[in-house]
Amino acid sequence: MTDTTARHPADTAPERPADAAGPAATPHLQPLLGREIVVLRAPAQAWSADDGSMTAGVHGFYLGDVRLVAESSTTVDGLRAEHIATVPVDASTVRFESLLRTVDDRGADPGVRMTVVRTVSSGGAAERVTVTSRLDRPLSLVLEIALRPDASALELIKSGREGDRPEGVTVADDATGASWVAGGVSVDLVSTGRGGAVRRSDESVVLRWPLEISPRSAVEVGFDLRAVDPAAVVAGVPGEAVWAPFDPAPRDDRLARWLDRARSDLSALRLTTPGSPDDVFYAAGAPWFFTLFGRDSLWAARFTLPVDLGIAAGTLRVLARLQGTESVPDTAEQPGKIMHELRQQTLTIPDEGVSLPPLYYGTVDATPLWVCLLHDAWRRGLDEAEVEALLPNLEAALAWMRDFGDSDGDGLLEYVDETGHGLANQGWKDSGDSVQWRDGSLAEGPIALCEVQAYAYEAAVHGADLLDRFGRGGGDEWRRWAAALRERFRASFWVSDVDGDFPAIALDAAKRPVDTVTSNLGHLLGTGLLDEAEEARVAARLVSPELASGFGLRTLSSDSDGFWPLSYHGGSVWTHDTAIAVSGLARAGFAAEAQQLADGLLAAAPAFDYRMPELHSGDSARDVPAPVPYPASCRPQAWSAAAAVAVWAATHGVVAPES
């Protein structure tokens, strides 16, 4: 988030029919996600209501950026079962428990139950339905599952629309399966269990089983959904992730539970590319971002370095292979630049004027973050031969910061969308209103973000260390460049209010410091950009009641005119953003402040069953007993899950060895 394309609920006005005097048509709205159930194994996922049914919105079975099935319903003798529980097993499996009281005896104890186990694999999904009876008499029932095939593109679903219908929906000759093509994805549906039959009914494929259940016994039936995308640009990773043990063990049970959930989710979010299956990275998150994102994948890999060095190595190599080599305005590619987003085809976001090419480079921070991850992975023990192989990419990334990232030659990195259809804001807060003045008005670009200067400073200094270590020239030059950036930052970014001095979120097109107090400050700590006194002032701001909500760090101070606790980047709390601040505070020596913000996330975690979402509201813990969900928040999200490891490391003294 992350980060990534603009992900607000669509701000479209209701569409009206041709007769303007008539009632307004239903507007297209981004589906809300907060109450929905998801199971996943990248690049596949399944979303449903809490009873397992799929009826509307984001519901469905997906592979990559295509929905394969839009609706699913299960009936017994024509009636829906009564849902009583949803039991997550792991990131890829969930159980739905229901009762069949219409065929039961009249006693108070339930005697007939139905259990649906849904499992998602990287190439599809499976459901097994078990009807169990404790009755002393046999039961003869008919169970049906109706599925509506679909071929809607993910970006249309995100905008509240549906897309194309599938091609060639056919039922197998033996009537035990069906097949169709959804946006180039070949789909096969196969019935499992004795006596199953498949038929077409209007737009649906209906699987039907006559169930003969003996006294005190059970019958299991179900289906397998298998999908193949020959043009996929990413692929799933078999097996489970293996992490190093947490040493020391987490002291807080809430953190331990968050770490357990995070490990399961991150294992399910792993991806690779068809051409390099050994280089594994994290997909950004569900449901909209099941692919490689430069910034997201880098931060998630950086967070998890203490327990998984391999994911960092794979992320570095994948991004290095896609590093820019020429200037292409339409894709924002430039020599040495690290990409932002990889898709199978052009991503068009209706109503937002955004159209991104399949390989898009519109990010200002992924390039220095790549350098930072390479250095940190080396410090953690990445094989020196692997590091040395990436040094040409390191040199190209450093050169990009100087030659292209600093587009006007003032010693700072800035961004602007030159295409007119790319991302207007190209830092991690990428929504259109993320950079605003204290009065709520928007800053005009080109924009120079404060945290990007911190990343660039750290990248230059640590890049120089790597160049020195491997006997390559240029280290001193990059230290001088970093020192000049540091002085330029000190002269340009610091502003004052009644509470003292602080760094502005950004400089606008006229090089004026944008005077809002934001969570971006947390990204400056521990990078070396600030001196000790400056870090102390920033640390005090981060734990002020205007920024620290009690459930994490607000993206925008509550005393700003533009503050709204449910604003995407203007008052909400982002898990990864808070974790970056926690890590920075710990690196800078502010252990108490780091623990305070970490405690806020731990206070929020139980409300989300320890699967921390992309973001939640910035309401104060003094006003609400639990955090209010942001209703369109993605989950699981790689950097939100990985934040658990960062919080553990920062609050348990887990530091990298000295180089």
- Label the structural class: alpha+beta
**Share of β-strand residues:** 15-25%
Oligomer: single chain
Count the DSSP helices.
13
Bulk shape:
globular
Mean pLDDT: 93
**Reported CATH architecture of the largest domain:** Alpha/alpha barrel
Spatial order of the strands forming the largest sheet: 5-6-7-8-15-12-11-10
Q: For the record, what CATH class of the largest domain applies?
A: Mainly Alpha
**Through-space gap between termini:** 31 Å
Secondary structure: helix percent: 25-40%
Number of strands: 29
User: Mind telling me the C-alpha Rg?
Assistant: 26 Å
CATH topology of the largest domain: Glycosyltransferase
List low-confidence stretches: 1-23
Counted up, domains total 2
Describe the biggest sheet? Answer: 8 strands, antiparallel
List the helices and strands and how they pair.
Elements: E1 37-41, E2 44-48, E3 60-63, E4 66-76, E5 82-90, E6 93-99, E7 112-121, E8 124-133, E9 139-149, H1 154-158, E10 167-171, E11 177-182, E12 185-192, E13 197-201, E14 204-213, E15 218-228, E16 235-236, H2 253-268, E17 270-273, E18 276-282, H3 294-303, H4 309-321, E19 341-342, E20 347-349, E21 354-356, E22 359-360, H5 366-379, H6 384-389, H7 391-405, E23 448-449, H8 450-469, H9 475-492, E24 494-497, E25 500-503, E26 506-507, E27 513-514, H10 532-542, E28 573-574, H11 575-587, H12 591-604, E29 615-616, H13 638-651
Antiparallel strand pairs: 1-2, 2-3, 3-4, 4-9, 5-6, 6-7, 7-8, 8-15, 9-14, 10-11, 11-12, 12-15, 13-14, 16-17, 17-18, 19-22, 20-21, 23-26, 24-25, 26-27, 28-29
